[in-house]
Amino acid sequence: MKKPRIFTVVLYIVVLALLFTWIVSFFGNKADDLSYSQVVELFQNEQVKKFTVDGQKIYLELHKPEETTGKKNLTCALANPDSFRLEMKDLLDKQHAAGVLEDYHFVPQGSWSAYELILPLLIVGGVLLLLWFLAMGKLSNSGNPAANFGKARTTLGIQEKVTFEDVAGAEEEKEELQEIVDFLRNPAKFKEIGAKIPHGLLLVGPPGTGKTLLARAVAGEADVQFLSISGSDFVELYVGVGASRVRDLFEQAKKVAPAIVFIDEIDAVGRKRGSGLGGGHDEKEQTLNQLLVEMDGFTKNEGVIVLAATNRPDILDPALLRPGRFDRQIHVGAPDVKGREDILKVHSRGKRLDENVDLKLVARSTVGFTGADLSNLMNEAAIRAARENRKVLTMEDLNEAMMKIMAGPEKRSRVRQRKDLKETAIHEAGHAVAMYHLPTQDPVLQITIVPRGQSLGATWHIPRDDGFNPTRNQMYEEIVGLLGGRVAEALFLGDISVGASNDIDRATKLARDMVARFGMCEELGTVSYLDGGEVFIGRDYQTTKSYSEKVAGTIDDQVKLLIDKAYAQCAEILKANEDKVMAVVDHLLANESMTGAQFADCMEGREIGEATKVSLFDAHKDDM
Ligand code: ADP
Ligand code: MG
Ligand code: ZN
Q1: Is the pLDDT of residue 1 over 50?
Q2: Is 228 a pocket residue for ligand 1 (Cβ < 6 Å)?
Q3: What pLDDT sits at residue 535?
Q4: Cys bridge to 152: 235, 249, 439, 571, which one at CB 3.0-4.6 A?
Q5: Distance between CA 152 and CA 215 in Å, rounded?
Q6: Which helix (H) or strand (E) element contains residue 374?
């Protein structure tokens, strides 16, 4: 049987989908349920639950069905959406704050009408293209769809060009790669003098640190083709497919040389061989063997350089790391403060920043963020500015974006019971008061019982230093602080809730690290009991233990002892400060939030001052 090619099928689907949306929008535009004055009335009667203004149209969702139409979802044409927005602003804000209006959006105007214009053109174009394909007989002689399986699905030259300028805060990495760039630009020079350039380089580092970006930048700097494939693409259905893809990839590269071949997630194919518990010759092994063959098969200076990325170099097959293969490693780590500032600068290109934006301060407050995190932060802030129809991005946007990234978006509209609020207030007050009495813990910036993401409340504190080398005492006191929520619930509520589960997870993990990883427990001595190597069982990898069951038991006991000790200390602190905890709870129930300064007032027995605007970046203001 003859099978149509995937491409043609996709084309059919696209054309049909476009036709369908066009028809729907065409007829959809005719029928309006309401007049403008009815819409305004609905808002005034607090009937609207959600709405979206899209172009000239408003889509409403009501709390209960409208009387005349009996429908809950209604539309209306707006002659002038901008003036509607201005007129309604105060009302919307008020209802949104009160939780009556749960959610609303203004889709930027113009996008829809342009779409409507282009749509018929697209459809006509699509139909013509289809006819052309039919005429060329492409449909009938495409043959076996599996024919393309062995081909490497590479991306060749379609992405926009990236250069070293786009990679910030990675000066050493760039310097190491410069050599490769020079070689690709002028291979003859290196050939003449007989210099050997490594043709395999391994970029090692955690996700989001810019490995892919660096690889692309090397190709961009040298102005050569960039062929990339991900290790997980190789792990496919049929035996032999991966190997033939590898062959194909290198064939393509030699054709377009000089070129960079980039193998992302090489650990997916390059795991140690022979550790599998079932048959030696599985698919991955064949793929890996082919890769090794290809890398050895280069004649010198052919102009193809293979870069690969992984965050687990320890599990790679040693054969991959032998001379002539990936014999050079470049470590790409999370950026330091200067690097973070530079990365923020790269990602604020093309965005207008308000005068109050201080990227230095943001950089200082984002310890542990990778390039990808920082890019995400800038983007979230820009989205927030755009949603509020501002053209400049402010420090408040960045602050809000950071909170969103760290804990999810704020959910003011969630209706909450007074009992819930009290539970949350006690929980958060417990964290804050405990931390206040722990010398190594960072000062509290803000306490809030406004839910955000998964959490019902939060006690914000931002680390002051880079935290690269915490001491035992610091880690222990962090555990005490983390238990503050649960301890307060137990002491002052007489019952405990699941709200503390995340705190408990983190405390347990910390305690485990202290005992089994950092040798901070006398019982077990200064020995690291990390889990051992990985064993391949069926499709999965399982970790093995490199220590006895007896030690495993001792580890568990010591972790529990440590947590129990922290719990007792926390309970002592909170019992001695019950009045303070209650004062914080009262303030939270009355005001939802408490700033760091207000908290300090409360703890030091002063009258609680006015709330000032808090920013996560405040912790680093004084370091300037
Ligand atoms: P990895 O491959 O290490 O997981 P990526 O290269 O895919 O990381 O990085 C993801 C995104 O993060 C990039 O597209 C880029 O926008 C941003 N990014 C990461 N590192 C940097 C950096 N050093 N400078 C600028 N942007 C970066
Ligand atoms: Mg990547
Ligand atoms: Zn908590």
Answers
A1: no
A2: no
A3: 46
A4: 249
A5: 19
A6: helix 371-387
| pLDDT at residue 2, rounded to an integer | 44
Nearest to 533 by CA among 317, 314, 269: 314
- Model confidence over 502-526: pLDDT tens digits? 899 999 999 999 998 888 888 888 8
Looking at residue 144, what is its pLDDT? 41
Q: Which of 283, 423, 428, 478 is catalytic?
A: 428
pLDDT of residue 485: 94
Q: Are 307 and 327 in contact (CB under 8 A)?
A: no
Residue 184, classified by CB atoms within 10 Å of its CB into exposed (0-12), middle (13-18) or buried (19+), is buried
208 CB under 6 A from ligand 1? yes
pLDDT above 90 covers a percentage of the chain that reads: 27
Q: Which ligand is nearest to the CA of 206?
A: 1
Q: Is the dihedral of CA 146, 151, 155, 156 positive or negative?
A: negative
Ligand 1 pocket test: pick from 213, 262, 340, 347 the residue with the most ligand atoms within 8 Å of its Cβ.
Answer: 213
Contact predicate 433/584, CB 8 Å = yes
Q: Phi/psi of residue 465, each to 5°? A: -115, 180
- 335 alpha carbon to ligand 3 midpoint, in Å? 29
Task: Region of 483 please: left (phi>0), alpha (psi -120 to 50) or beta.
Answer: alpha
Mean pLDDT of the chain: 81
DSSP one-letter code for 74: E
The reply to whether ligand 1 has any atom less than 6 angstroms from the CB of 615 is no
Who wins on pLDDT, 118 or 347?
A: 347
Establish whether 428 is a catalytic residue: yes
According to DSSP, the β-strands at 259-264 and 304-310 are parallel
- Distance between Cα 147 and ligand 3 center (Å): 56
Question: What is the C-alpha separation between 504 and 502, in angstroms, rounded?
Answer: 5
Tokens of 230: 């991900």
Instruction: Calculate mean pLDDT across residues 301-324.
Output: 85
Q: Quote the DSSP letter at residue 388.
A: T
Nearest of 297, 300, 158 to residue 225 by alpha carbon: 158
Most confident by average pLDDT, 129-133, 327-331, 404-408:
327-331
pLDDT greater than 90 at residue 221: yes
Q: Is the CB of 432 under 6 A from ligand 1?
A: no
Helices marked H in 388-467? 395-407, 418-436
Specify the residue with its C-alpha closest to ligand 1, atom 18: 371
List CB contacts of 32: < 8 A, sequence separation 6 or more.
75, 76, 77
Q: Which element (helix H / strand E) includes 536?
A: strand 534-537
Which pLDDT does position 204 carry in this prediction? 92
pLDDT, tens only, 64-90:
888 777 888 888 888 777 788 878 888
Q: What residue owns the CA closest to ligand 1's atom 17?
A: 372
Mean pLDDT along residues 116-133:
76
Q: From 41, 300, 346, select the one nearest 166 (Cα to Cα).
A: 346
pLDDT for residue 31: 61
The SS3 call for residue 309 is strand
Work out the number of other CB atoms within 10 angstroms of the CB of residue 211.
Answer: 27
Element housing 582 (H / E): helix 578-591
539 pLDDT band, cuts 50/70/90, is very low
- Indicate which atom in ligand 1 lies nearest the CA of residue 309: 2
**Ligand 1 atom closest to Cα of residue 264:** 2
For ligand 1, say whether the CB of 346 is within 6 Å of any of its atoms: yes
- Among candidates 377, 356, 355, 357, which has minimal Cα distance to 366? 377
pLDDT score at 143: 38
